[in-house]
Specification:
Chain A is mostly helical. The first copy, chain A, is 84% helix and 0% strand. Chain A contains four helices and no strands.
């Protein structure tokens, strides 16, 4: 049986990853990115790549999958920000 | 001696937490929050609170500290977004 706290961790990973979907959708749909901070997403993206390395080290599928998806979403926001600024 | 991968994890935690500082600064300084997605930060904040619970369960000081700080920064962005929208 899966530990209750492991479910909390999986739900946490799901929420902090999927949170970026409405932000990508909004930036793509409205082309409005002026209040987005480019330094935030650059620092965040580098951090996510390090979490991914750490996830591979821990052999944690949840960490690997969620950080790959979050990394793609952060990269999309960086591209949209540079394109529309 | 601390494992190299533990350092990677600590740097990752530092970067994904501190990334929100330039975003909070920008939103506070410019009062511009229209391209920020409120659903993103609400979902993200709930996710961070679950990571915090998971961090307490794992007795991971790095997870506890970084998620408390990230939670405060996300909450500040939610307040600024609601205030200036």
């Amino acid at each position: 049986m899966i530990d209750t706290f492991e479910i909390v961790g999986l739900v946490a990973a799901f929420l902090t990853t999927s949170a970026f979907v409405p932000q990508v959708y909004k930036a793509w749909k409205t082309k409005s990115t002026e209040s987005l901070s480019l330094p935030m997403y650059l620092i965040f993206f580098i951090g996510i790549m390090l979490w991914l390395i750490y996830g591979f080290h821990l052999n944690s599928l949840a960490m690997i999958v969620s950080n790959i998806i979050t990394g793609i979403l952060a990269l999309l926001l960086i591209i949209l920000k540079i394109k529309h600024q």
